[in-house]
Amino acid sequence: MRQFPSDVAFTPAVKGVQTAKGSRASYARVEQGQGWQTRVTPDLAGFLAGLDMFYLGTATAEGQPYIQYRGGSPGFLKALDEKTLAFADFGGNRQYITLGNLTENPKAFLFLMDYANSQRVKVWGTARVVENDANLLDLLRDPDYPGKVERAIVFTVEAWDINCPQHIHKRFAERQVAPVIEQLRGRIAELEEQLRKATKERQP
């Protein structure tokens, strides 16, 4: 039984290093205060609604970690209730490392990145694979996204925390950049037409 939600990450070994490096007191104050969240809040659900990618961490029974990139349409990682997230698992290269890991070790981790706004959220919990649940797959499927849905992965939240934004380099998705580019193209076309007309008027 963990005393604080953050104990999922702050193990005795981690706390020992924090003590040696001088940060334990500040994190102890966080633990005694509001601490880390254990349920999906409206703020977290809103954050998920804008994400079109995240990183999923699993491990073998021996503890060998594996990180996998997951992408989809914005909001494809959905909050089913205050303790449960889920997403459609699309067909890929058929290595099935994540699926294999989850058969022997349900512990999992979500690293949620919003590069454009320099935000990141870390989520600890467990995950399971759900096959042949038509209702769940219909809930998670986006008919406008080309990926083939093969199954669902359901994540049970144990704790989550918003991480420090420093050192996050801003990056923008194509859907975020495309409208700006189109606006610039329109402005360029407008200026080119003005230049063409001005040049024509000055011709003898």
Any overview of this molecule?
There is one protein chain. By secondary structure, this protein is α+β, with helices and mostly antiparallel strands. It folds into 3 domains: 1-35, no CATH class; 37-168, Electron Transport, Fmn-binding Protein, Chain A (Pnp Oxidase, Chain A), CATH 2.30.110; 172-204. 35% of the residues lie in helices and 29% in strands. It is built from 6 helices and 7 strands, in the order αααββββαββαβα. The chain has helices at residues 12-21, 24-32, 42-49, 97-104, 134-140, 174-202, and strands at residues 53-59, 65-71, 78-81, 84-90, 107-114, 119-130, 149-162. Strands 2-1-5-6-7-4-3 form a 7-stranded antiparallel beta sheet. A hairpin with a 2-residue loop joins β3 and β4 (84-90). The radius of gyration is 23 Å and the shape is extended. 18% of the residues are buried. The model has no long low-confidence stretch (mean pLDDT 91).
Low-confidence stretches: none
Number of strands: 7
Residue-averaged pLDDT: 91
Tell me roughly what share of residues is in helical segments. 25-40%
Number of continuous helical runs: 6
Count the domains: 3
Estimate the strand proportion. 25-35%
Which CATH first-tier class of the largest domain would you pick? Mainly Beta
User: What is CATH's topology name of the largest domain?
Assistant: Pnp Oxidase, Chain A
Secondary structure category: alpha+beta
What coarse outline follows from CA principal-axis ratios? extended
Tell me the span between the first and last alpha carbons: 89 Å
The largest sheet has its strands arranged as: 2-1-5-6-7-4-3
